[in-house]
Write a structure and sequence with these properties.
about 290 residues, Rossmann fold, seven-stranded parallel β-sheet, about 15% strand, globular, SDR_fam, oxidoreductase activity, SDR family NAD(P)-dependent oxidoreductase
């Protein structure tokens, strides 16, 4: 049976690669973007197999309307892919609160809004798969990505809770954590601001790396799309899935450091429990 997908941010990047792969597989698609004109070629090539819609994911009324339109056309929504998002680079000090809010609204609240728009539908269907595009930036906080990582860390926590709540209804949740892919995410979709010289060795280094990395990222969008389609067909898909050799390498390194730090501070961590014997704090114990 052909599945019905709803993908946000379908006009470019990984969202576009996935939209094309979904349609090529024979599945039906609700393809959304802020500018639906950028999706016109999909309609021309695939006809009634695709429904293209204008959608601002931060607008809960529009989100509900997109889901309703998808159900009206295809009868159900089997897979929601929350892909829409962007991330600027700049120091926390120099990033305006308006920019912080805008990035968090799109990357985190957009995901929450779209997810809430399909939960009741999928619960009624007794099945569904919600795929959240997070990032390596949802596991590691690189310098210069304060707003983006704040949002993506939020997506990860939100999705972990979500997966536990909706599992009894047959709804699966997967968080995708891509590394660098050869899309325009690191190019025209990102504002790079080195800012003041005080941050030259931290934020500035991130900006310089981003510029040099653009076009040389190891990730292939078409191969990523094939993986997402594969996991959407599994009875037991992963909850988290890293994409790209750079993502695997960097997260493994960060996770190992985190585990080692927790081990190093374990005595202090457990010392905060109630203790009837009133043991001194670890650093207060005398030696020798």
């Amino acid at each position: 049976m052909f599945r019905v997908w709803l993908i946000t941010g379908s006009s470019r990047g990984l969202g576009r690669a996935l939209a094309e792969a979904v349609l090529a597989s024979g599945d039906n698609l609700v393809a959304t973007a802020r500018d639906p004109g950028q999706l016109a070629d999909l309609s021309e090539r695939y006809g009634d197999q695709v429904l293209t819609l204008a959608l601002d994911v931060t607008d809960e009324v529009a989100a509900a309307a997109a889901v309703e339109a998808g159900v009206k056309r295809f009868g159900r929504i089997d897979v929601l892919v929350n892909n829409a998002g962007y991330g600027n680079v700049g120091s926390i000090e120099d990033t305006s609160l308006a920019d912080f809010r805008a990035q968090i609204e799109t990357n985190l609240f957009g995901t929450i809004i779209m997810t809430k728009a399909v939960i009741a539908l999928m619960r009624g269907q007794g099945a569904g798969h919600i795929i959240q595009f997070s990032s390596v930036g949802g596991r590691i906080g690189p310098a210069g990505r304060g707003a983006y990582s704040a949002a993506k860390f939020g997506v990860e926590g939100f999705s972990e809770v979500l997966s536990k709540e909706v599992a009894p209804f047959g709804i699966r949740v997967t968080v995708i954590e891509p590394g660098g892919f050869r899309t325009d995410f690191a190019g025209s979709s990102t504002v790079l601001a080195e800012g003041r010289r005080d941050y030259a060795d931290t934020v500035g280094a991130t900006v310089r790396f981003q510029r040099e990395y653009d076009g040389r990222q190891p990730g292939d969008p078409a191969r990523a799309a094939a993986v997402v389609i594969h996991i959407a067909g599994l009875d037991e898909p992963p909850f988290r899935l890293l994409l790209g050799s750079d993502a695997v390498r960097n997260v493994e390194k960060a996770d190992a450091a985190r585990i080692e730090a927790d081990r190093m501070w374990r005595t202090v961590s457990v010392s905060t429990d109630f203790d009837a014997e009133a043991e001194p704090m670890p650093w207060e114990k005398k030696t020798g």
